[in-house]
Every structure is written in structure tokens, then in C-alpha cells.
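Q: Here's a chain of 166 amino acids. Please give me its 3D structure as C-alpha cells.
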Amino acid sequence: MKKLILFSFIILTLLGCGDEVRFNTPAMQANREGVTWRADYFAADIDFGGFLIEGGSGPEVLQLVTPTDGPGVYSLGNGSSAVAIFRDFDGTVYSTNNIPDPSVTIYPVEGTINVQEVDTGANPIVISGEFNFTAFSADGLRSVNFIGGVFNRIPLDGGLEVITTN
């Protein structure tokens, strides 16, 4: 009887967890303005000698562009050769290369893309890492913030184009 009660307790404990964390592979997600943003689709490309890592959810598209195609931490901000670009559901494009209007913030744009692993043994090659950034619209009056971002085992499929920011 004791074994049956213990067994029932274990089963109920395991099945009763309502706040499960799911890990998807591949995946791309981040905290966007305090809400979890997850990509429904993702891919990567080698463009201009660096990575173009893309994820999207409906009409929204997030792109991370690095100047080289290897692991490393790439700083983001005005004048940086690395850039994070986000196109919102209404078509507004935000970029870490856009300068914020002084009425919005006096702080410079900052962030990082951290390519932690490039698995060349996988077929196709996959890329994993982390990111965080604040990007601004072309007029510098609107911003979007992504923190705690991860991209995990994004396949290097090719065929991607960088979103134009003008």
C-alpha cells in the first residue's frame, strides 16, 4: 500500500507541473519589451563574409548580422559592422545602426551578438549563441528592446537577404 501511495505521489508530481519549460531545437527567442518573443521560422546564411541569422513570427522578422563567420562577441551600435534589425508587424524597421533622437534618449545604442558555436559537423551546419540589443526606427523616435535572446542550432540554409533600413 505504501508503494502504491508513493508511486501515485510521484506520478501526480510529474504530471502536475503547469509551468513547464520547453526547449526546442532549432529555436530563436528573446524577451521583447517584457514579453517572450519566439520565432516560428529561422535560417542562417553567410553573407558579405559574416553570418546573417534570421527568425520570424508572422510578419515580424529579426535579423542578426555579424562581420565575420566565426564564433565571437560582436558589439552593436552606431558605426559597428555588426547590426541587429527588426521589422515589426506594421512594417516599421528598427536597427542598431540608427541613432536615437535626443528627445528619446541620450544613451548610445548598444548590444551584442554572441556567436558561441558553429557546428560544422552537422548537416547542414548549425549556429548557436545569444543576443541583446536596443534598436531605433530611422527617425530615432521609436525603439525596440530585446534581452536574454538565444538562437540555438539555426541551420545554415542560405538564400537570405538583409532587410533594408532606409
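Q: Can you summarize the key feature?
A: The chain has one helix and eleven strands.
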